[in-house]
Amino acid sequence: MGQHTVIPFGPQHPVLPEPLHLDLVVEDEKVIEAIPQIGFVHRGLEKLTETRDYNAFIYIAERICGICAFGHSLGYAETVEKLMGVQVPERGEYLRAIMHELSRVHSHLLWLGLAADAFGYESLFMHCWRLRERILDLFEKTTGGRVILSAVVVGGMVRDQDAQMLRYIQDKLEGIREDYAQICKAFLNDNSVRNRLCGVGYISPEDARALGMVGPFGRASNVACDLRQYGNGAYGKLSDFQQILSTDGDCFGRAKVRAEEVLQSIDIINELIATIPDGPVSVPVKGNVPAGAQASNVLEQPRGECYYYALGNGTKFLERMRMRTPTSVNLAGMATALKGCDLADVNMIVLTIDPCISCTER
Amino acid sequence: MPTIERFTDIALADLLNVANEKHSGGWRAVQVLACNTEEGIDLTYTFNKDNVWENYRIKGITKQDTVPSLQQMYLCLFPFENEVVDLFGVNIAGMALDFGGRLYDVAVNEPMTIISPEVKAARDKAKKAAQAAAAKAAQPAAEELPKPLTDEEIEAKVAAVSPEKQDKVRAALKAKQKKDQEALAEAQAKAAQAEKPAVPVPMTDEEIEAKVAAVAPEKQDKVRAALKAKQKKDIAAAQAGKDGE
């Protein structure tokens, strides 16, 4: 039996995309235990509800994360709308879902690129990010921003997209789909990818449920946790939605779920554009939030379930706003997946939960 | 099948029972959140199963209370329980992964329980405005009250009834006239009071210094002088208001 050694890993480390610290207890090359620590980028964003009214706070909410920016502004707006009893016009809901799915495509392409980079497939990384640029171009064309879009307001969307622009989005996505098919083939069939990912960081479906794993991380262990299945907003208008699951439970399963979800999101966008109704895209929301009124909301972000909570105090400022991000609930699963792995696989396993520590700490 | 969110208030003593019940029922722990209130810290635990999200709130947790950790059942709650300890100062006992108040490297202890004087003043002002608006809404406006009958109208009504009933009807109408006149006078007095500008409450020296501390050092002298002048003016206005009463 070898000697146990503790290796401090991160928060600044060449293979880590986020400021996460791990105390890795290793025996020779095997990780026996991994204790995660966060807390290096806490910004106190939730406390800013004291000085930003509920309409202005949406611009703080979308700055929680640079990748899920649209999702956070959407989740926040939906929570306040529940609190105020506001019904968003149907066209606004469709546009929100279209933009949210575009965000998912861009987030997954970004992750697939990072994963390719992590297992040493540089050209695949570049192809993924090249396609992602085209999604960012669509954001710029429709909202004027590439990362922070400021497209959502409490009550709907900032601006409508005409039929010509929606057709343009569809055309661009068809082009992306063709190129993406080649990339997807490499991810799912290439031997070098399989050799690096299959059987690494396995979590059984039972463990995944017990650890409360969410998002593609959970779905790769066959946990049916995609919130889009409940049909909130425009997702309820889809003719059919089958969440993408895998029984692999390893790093390959997590890559597979995300790779297939890109194509699923393109299909969803096409269906929503084909059926989008006419009408206004927002309603004005004014007045104070009732004192003591509380509401919670859940949204399927690209990384998984995000939980929002808001409490009113009779003014235009919220008494409390809470965002619980998917990474924060997936940390326990990540620590479990690291047990028993090779030291060289640590970065790959950490990456496959798609951690966002900035989101987690807010 | 849309998502359903429910809220239930429970006692601190019931927390473990609720968590055990949820755990054995196959529910997933979603999160723990804290909220700072005047009575203490409110903790909300969320559990999920299928399309239902159940929120259990425990109100008014004080420094003397000890909250049992749920990490033995739900390890995924470790970031949230440690966060509640760091940011709100709640005592949580029995955590499997305990960062000892060092999860977040914060500059001040329990930052989420600190309410700045500016925020407190704004909240008090908003609360008073809401109370005044509610009181105003509860009071009928002068124009909504019935108009008191004039003496001529009373005599005209009395003339229309049979002679043996005239004295009785006149007395009843006179009593109603008096009641309506009193209600109208009261409503008019209240309306006049509401239209009067509110006498400003002068700031204390401590409040002035708190505001001064919040601005850039090069502007502090100027801001202090302006606030002192406002304080003097408000004291004079308050004195004038008292004299007027």
Q: Care to describe what's here?
A:
The complex is a heterodimer of chains A (362) and B (245). Chain A is α+β, with helices and mostly antiparallel strands. Chain A has a single domain (43-325), classed as Cytochrome-c3 Hydrogenase, chain B (Orthogonal Bundle). In chain A, 46% of the residues lie in helices and 14% in strands. In chain A, strand 7 (304-312) and strand 8 (318-324) form a beta hairpin. In chain A, helix 2 (69-84) runs antiparallel to helix 3 (90-118) and helix 3 packs antiparallel against helix 4. The longest helix of chain A is centred in the N-terminal third of the chain and has 29 residues, at 90-118. Chain B is an alpha/beta fold. Chain B has three domains: 4-112, NADH:ubiquinone oxidoreductase Nqo5 subunit (Beta Polymerase, domain 2, 2-Layer Sandwich), CATH 3.30.460; 115-196; 199-245. Chain B has a four-stranded mixed sheet. In chain B, helix 4 packs antiparallel against helix 5 and helix 6 packs antiparallel against helix 7. The longest helix of chain B is centred in the C-terminal third of the chain and has 30 residues, at 166-195. The radius of gyration of chain B is 31 Å and the shape is flat. The N and C termini of chain B lie far apart (63 Å). The mean pLDDT of chain B is 84. Chains A and B meet through strand 6, strand 7, strand 8 and helix 10 of A and strand 2, helix 2 and helix 3 of B.
TL;DR?
The complex is a heterodimer of chains A (362) and B (245). Chain A has 362 residues and is an alpha+beta fold.
Lay out the secondary structure:
The complex is a heterodimer of chains A (362) and B (245).
Chain A: E1 4-9, E2 21-27, E3 30-37, H1 58-61, H2 69-84, H3 90-118, H4 122-143, E4 152-153, E5 156-157, H5 163-189, H6 191-197, H7 205-210, H8 215-219, H9 251-275, E6 294-301, E7 304-312, E8 318-324, H10 326-338, H11 346-352, H12 357-361
Helix pairs in contact in A: 2-3, 3-4, 3-9, 3-11, 4-5, 5-9
Chain B: E1 4-10, H1 15-24, E2 28-37, E3 40-49, E4 52-61, E5 66-68, H2 78-88, E6 91-93, H3 117-138, H4 151-159, H5 166-195, H6 205-213, H7 220-244
Parallel strand pairs in B: 1-4, 5-6
Antiparallel strand pairs in B: 2-3, 3-4
